[in-house]
Amino acid sequence: MRAKWFAVPLVAAALATGCGASTGTTTSTTGQAGTGGENGEKAPTIALFLPESKTTRYESFDRPLFEAKVKSLCPDCRLLYSNADQDAAKQQQQVEAALTQGADVLVLDAVDAAAVAPLVNQAKQKKVPVIAYDRLISGIGYDYFVSFDNVRVGEMQGQALLDALTKNGTAAKGQIVMINGATTDPSSADYKKGAHNVLDGKVKIGREFDTPDWSPDKAQQEMEQAVTALGRDQIVGVLSANDGMAGGAIAAMKRAGYDPTPPITGQDAELAAVQRILTGEQYMTIYLDIRSEAEKSAELAVAVGRGDKPAAATTVNNGTADIPAFLLDPIAVTADKVKDTIVKDGFYKAADICKGETAAACAKAGIS
């Protein structure tokens, strides 16, 4: 059983809250911590930790949406925010600093989800609840996990690519390249597993990479290596685990003389990727309802900070314990679905998407 929430239009004011990239720990106080909340109970101090800023979503969506929801539910709550800039040691310092500052709840999107068990243990020793955000922390039990059905994400990407290759008549005529995410992110393994569930035995995988830090630059280098090794005419499709890396791979293919580029997948519905999908450079993306993920995590943080224990929709085993979990459903988006998903939900305004070379493609897709 999976919990389902549905996207609602983004509020511009919410997106404007704290959108700048953070290089350290930022304390955002929305009230006087400890002065009392609803019914006079103590207003908790809630600490949010995000892993990096290379991926657009974290600073532009996850952080401001989480903070806005906490403020709406608990005006007196104190918020601590940190971005680790893909540095596990830095994140350790940030978590320890937040515990020292009296954090009552940790919402943690780990840089290295396989290595943060000692930090979770520090929190447990202080009786501070931990909510794993987006990435499943392994090696220890904790309170909640909020994310998407990540294996399903990979299956959707794999199926979309297979559908495109079948339509083009190229599924059996060449090879594909798989550009997976960072090995330090357990979600990456789930995406890879899902994609292989669909693709294995149906296409030939010529090269496969695990990309450190989910870096678009490294993805570009990987794609260049694949083109050199396999030959330009042999590559008929690319499975990219997210949009940023897809952008890097597309840059490599353009430099290699591909016109048009073969079908390539993505994830996160980044603005540049949506524009590429409409103009035909990228085949699809996975649209994640980040608003629901951020807001559900904020609701849980406020609730457990006040001593409540909300019932979870399901559990996910992290290799050590069954973690109470809320899993959201991803949505596969191709050019013909942008209008009725991303635009309809207000994830981006049509005016933001339909600029420059994208304007004609928007008109063709009925987006105005």
UniProtKB/TrEMBL annotation:
Say yes or no: keyword Signal present.
Answer: yes
> Record's superkingdom?
Bacteria
Q: What does the UniProt keyword field contain?
A: Signal
Q: Where is the Periplasmic binding protein domain?
A: 46-308
Q: What is its main location?
A: other
Q: Which residues does UniProt assign to the signal peptide?
A: 1-21
Renumbered residue ranges of the record's region Disordered: 23-42
Instruction: Report if keyword Signal is assigned.
Output: yes
Compositional bias, Low complexity, is annotated for 23-32
Q: Which Gene3D superfamilies match?
A: 3.40.50.2300
- UniProt-annotated location(s): Cell envelope
Q: Which Pfam families match?
A: Peripla_BP_4
Identify this protein by name.
Sugar ABC transporter substrate-binding protein
Q: Which organism is it from?
A: Sphaerisporangium rhizosphaerae
